[in-house]
Design brief:
By secondary structure, the chain is an alpha/beta fold. The protein has two domains: 156 residues, NAD(P)-binding Rossmann-like Domain (Rossmann fold), CATH 3.40.50.720; 72 residues, ProC C-terminal domain-like fold. Helices cover 51% and strands 11% of the residues. It has a seven-stranded mixed β-sheet, with helices on both faces. The longest helix is centred in the C-terminal third of the chain and has 23 residues. Bound molecules: 1,4-dihydronicotinamide adenine dinucleotide and (2S)-3,4-dihydro-2H-pyrrole-2-carboxylic acid. (2S)-3,4-dihydro-2H-pyrrole-2-carboxylic acid binds next to helix 7. It catalyses: L-proline + NAD(+) = (S)-1-pyrroline-5-carboxylate + NADH + 2 H(+); L-proline + NADP(+) = (S)-1-pyrroline-5-carboxylate + NADPH + 2 H(+). Keywords: Amino-acid biosynthesis, Cytoplasm, NADP, Oxidoreductase, Proline biosynthesis. Its EC number is 1.5.1.2.
Length: 287
């Protein structure tokens, strides 16, 4: 039986998320020969090619020349310069997928050759262990087949949901940035355990297992979080006392404020990436 051919793929930017994407592609059936990574840092490029066997020596423009799929994984502030660099070298029909927070599809479509299919993805770092959550949204030239290819590329990362582009800033605020809120909670719980006399190692293991187990229980039962919380809360017991203290300290309001701040920041990053009205869109391709 022959393996299904995968589109040749260039991952631009091999940082935290670029590496997660490379790892996911290789798990999803791409071979190391199918994947090029580009990196501004030569040391990081060597690290990635050593770890995954992928080619990581080419500049962005050279890497996209032979690619059917381009994954943009540089910081939002770097996206405009990378698009200007690759636009002349993109082959017609190459799908451009970006994980950059906030940067709207319109920015890619204005900078890339007319008709280039674009899909935006908002993943998160638990993708590294196959427990991620990603929202994906199509640009105006992306078809159902393009979305299906993105789903195939992300198959090893965890949950992948199709959303409208207008919802991606909210997805960023909840699941994109969300792991940091969960780690914040784990850290706070562990610290509290130390305060109450547990060793740090034990307190951390208990906090991690508790958050992991609670997420698994919510996912497997599908029960509302309030119902699950009620089941922990014996009348007059310890949990209601603890939850009342969370309320008194405004923790729920803090979570909402955190998500709102992340949402606003995502929108600001997007606004900063938009070209000035005088900029010339629609570059020609290299011949
Ligand atoms: N880290 C996360 O949890 C998530 C990140 N993202 C998005 O992923 C993108 C990358 O973020 P991270 O991986 O966290 O950042 P990072 O800083 O770890 O990685 C960015 C990488 O791009 C490289 N780079 C910079 N300029 C370059 C260029 N011109 N060509 C090629 N490589 C270049 C840097 O050397 C660096 O290794 C961002 O746009 C971010 O919004 C999206 C969802 C989650
Ligand atoms: O903090 C950031 O900007 C990126 C996007 C979502 C998670 N990390």
């Amino acid at each position: 039986m022959t393996a299904t051919a995968r589109p040749h793929t260039a991952v631009l930017g091999g940082g935290v998320m670029g590496e997660a994407l490379v790892s996911a592609l290789l798990t999803a059936g791409w071979t190391a020969d199918d994947v090029d990574v580009t990196e501004r840092s030569a040391a990081r490029a060597m690290e990635l090619s050593g770890r995954y066997g992928v080619r990581a020596a080419d500049p962005n423009r050279k890497a996209v020349k032979g690619a059917d799929l381009v994954l943009v994984a540089v910081k939002p502030q770097v996206v405009p310069e990378v698009l200007a660099e690759i636009a002349p070298a993109l082959r017609p029909g190459t799908l451009v997928v970006s994980v950059a927070a906030g940067v709207p599809v319109a920015v890619y479509e204005a900078a890339l050759p007319e008709g280039t299919p674009v899909v935006r993805v908002m993943p998160n770092t638990p993708a590294l262990v196959g427990k991620g959550a990603s929202g994906i949204a199509p640009g105006s030239h992306a078809t159902d087949e393009h979305l299906a290819l993105v789903e195939e590329a992300l198959a090893a990362t965890g949950l992948v949901v199709r959303v409208a582009e207008k919802d991606l800033d909210a997805v960023t605020a909840i699941s994109g940035s969300g792991p940091a809120y969960a780690f914040y909670l784990i850290d706070a719980m562990a610290e509290a355990g130390v305060l109450l006399g547990l060793t740090r190692d034990l307190a951390t293991r208990l906090a991690v297992a508790t958050v992991e187990g609670s997420a698994a229980l919510a996912a497997q039962t599908g029960d509302h979080p309030v119902v699950l919380r009620e089941r922990v809360s014996s009348p007059g017991g310890t949990t209601v006392a603890g939850v009342a203290a969370l309320d008194a300290h405004g923790v729920r309001a803090g979570v909402v404020a955190a998500a709102r701040a992340a949402y606003d920041r995502s929108r600001a990053l997007g606004a900063a990436a938009r070209p000035t009205p005088t900029a010339e869109p629609g570059p020609a391709r290299d011949e």
